[in-house]
Amino acid sequence: MSKLSVGIVGLPNVGKSTLFNALTKQQVVAANYPFATIDPNVGVVSVPDERLDKLAELSSSENKIPAVVEFYDIAGLVKGANKGEGLGNQFLAHIREVKIIVHVVRVFKLDGVIHVEGSIDGLRDFETINTELILKDMELLDKRIDRAMKESKTGDKSKKEELTVLEKVKAALDEGQLAHTLGEEILGKEVVSELSLLTSKPQLILLNGDESEVGDNLKKAIEELGFQYMVADLGQDASLGRLIKSAYKSLDLITFFTTGPKETRGWTLREGGRAPQAGGVIHSDFEDKFIRAEVVLYDKLVEAGSWVKAKEKGWMRIEGKQYVIQDGDVLIIHHS
């Protein structure tokens, strides 16, 4: 099951709980989503997609199951979290499990809501959280580099190469860079990807307040790191649909569909994923046992009015293992 897991991070009192509470009101009924253990700090939220409704109507489906996002409410981090301040170690470990970080930064000024640092400074808070993530990653890297040094002394060329890659990551973090900025050439190496570094994860910055309260220096700092940001007044409108779609976009995710009388369902796949991988998302056995896929693009299926008519018009294609799934593809997977 491929799902998008998002960790909500930030300092205390920046609006994380407001966001999480708004999200959990949109929660998917747990019975429709057997893959998740629903903890108090996990909200399983459907991805807004009107295509799902139209397909369910077209197939007269008994059930309709959207693609989903899991949001993890990670308790407020504080300066020193990497050393365990404010239960920091526990919460930093939770972040390691997610695929993308929604980083909530407070820009609103409100006398009744105290700030942990005593003043409102979005850039300072943004840098505080990222510094904590860097320090925690450095702690993990130091241990892994020690091991790699011992392994490289055996004369194994691949172990020496691993050490070189790890030292490149460490050098970047020492300079205050996030691992995210190193690109896939480094992050894609197995020795790095298996560490699941906190600073390697994409971040979507949610600026809690009004556009007029966002300083240019904060916008510049976010853009320099290659992150997207959105401004939302969480007290009035959590802009949930926009947030979920932005999280999708940040991870280069697409939605494909399966539909029939029993169920219409949206599934999540990384852009560029091939037909067997889509099969694996539906059921783990389908990837290895994949034979072929019947494919109709959503628009064409709706225009035809039924799978049979789409076939008659020649809009249904038979695709093999090399086919790259497109957003909106409706599939029937054939497997051995």
Strand and helix map with partners:
Elements: E1 4-9, H1 16-24, E2 42-46, H2 50-59, E3 63-65, E4 68-73, H3 88-96, E5 100-106, H4 122-152, H5 157-174, H6 184-187, H7 190-193, E6 203-208, H8 216-224, E7 228-232, H9 240-250, E8 253-259, E9 263-270, H10 275-282, H11 284-288, E10 290-297, H12 298-304, H13 307-312, E11 317-319, E12 329-335
Parallel strand pairs: 1-4, 1-5, 3-9, 5-6, 6-7
Antiparallel strand pairs: 2-4, 8-9, 10-11, 10-12
Structure description:
With 336 residues, this protein is α/β, with parallel strands linked by helices. The protein folds into 2 domains: 5-251, 3-Layer(aba) Sandwich (Rossmann fold); 272-335, Beta-grasp domain (Ubiquitin-like (UB roll)), CATH 3.10.20.30. The chain has helices at residues 16-24, 50-59, 88-96, 122-152, 157-174, 184-187, 190-193, 216-224, 240-250, 275-282, 284-288, 298-304, 307-312; strands spanning 4-9, 42-46, 63-65, 68-73, 100-106, 203-208, 228-232, 253-259, 263-270, 290-297, 317-319, 329-335. The strands form 3 sheets. The protein has a 6-stranded mixed β-sheet, sandwiched between helices. Strands 3-9-8 form a 3-stranded mixed β-sheet, sandwiched between helices. It has a 3-stranded antiparallel β-sheet with strand order 11-10-12. The longest helix is centred in the middle third of the chain and has 31 residues, at 122-152. Residues 28-38 have low confidence and may be disordered.
